[in-house]
Amino acid sequence: MRVTKTLNNSLVLCLDKNDKEVVLMGKGIGFQMKKGDLVPADKIQKVFKLDSLSDSLKKDYIKLFEDVPDELIICVKKIIDQANTKYDEPLNKNLFFTLVDHLNYAIERSEKGIIFQNRLLIEIQKYYPKEYSIGCYAIELLNKKLDVELSEEEAGNIAFHIVNAQSDQANMEETMLSVRALKDILTLLSYLFPEKKVNKESMLYLRFVTHLQFFIARMIRKEELPEKDEFLLASVKQRFPKEFNAALKIKEYVEEEIQAAVNQDELLYLTLHISRVY
């Protein structure tokens, strides 16, 4: 493959045999390389295809790579390599782009003394310990190699990126659907429980929102919880009839908007979470 643009010492932009733009990664791969130069095969460590990105997003990422330090690129590769050892299937390759973007901004914020609190950190630690451990590894590596002071909050943020990268189908359309569905479901609940003043800073509410996020992700990916507790659902339905009705409304919404089946265990957990918050 021949270079169309050198991004930095570790990345070059090329055209593949199908004239599709790709980013090639390798130690020193961009050093003294000019447009039209042939990239030695033994220098290529990774190939990132750009055809899954929109034209505007592609331009943004190319510009980003020209600005970020080589050491960050190397660290992100190590983080992803470490993460891939934890799973049977490789993580979505777009993780490289999103993680470089996120961490570059996180480092800029850290250097300015700006820290965003991750209000779901406890939930991430509890429900995604593997991904959180990768986040901790990433923070330790970045703080050491880049001489920065990223906080534990960022370990949780990185964990979220790892979770999202576990589906090959992850894309912007799916992300937008997830955000819209979450907003619609919370709006629906506010109409169903108009008298309830919900404390949106409470752990119960944050836990419920986290549950909804993962519930929506399962629905989009057509993954179902195994049904195993009909008796408990009947008991919960009798005890929380209004909350169960709300769960049924969510079921109707999901089946209409996402075209996914909501089974009894999903209804059970939705009802229980709604009963604690509303």
Automatic annotation (TrEMBL):
Sequence ranges assigned to domain PRD in this UniProt record: 67-172, 173-278
Key words of the record: Repeat
Coiled-coil intervals, chain numbering: none
Keyword Repeat applies: yes
Domain of life (superkingdom): Bacteria
PANTHER family (alphabetical): CRYPTIC BETA-GLUCOSIDE BGL OPERON ANTITERMINATOR (PTHR30185:SF15)
Name used for this protein in its record: PRD domain-containing protein
Higher taxonomy: Bacteria, Bacillati, Bacillota, Bacilli, Lactobacillales
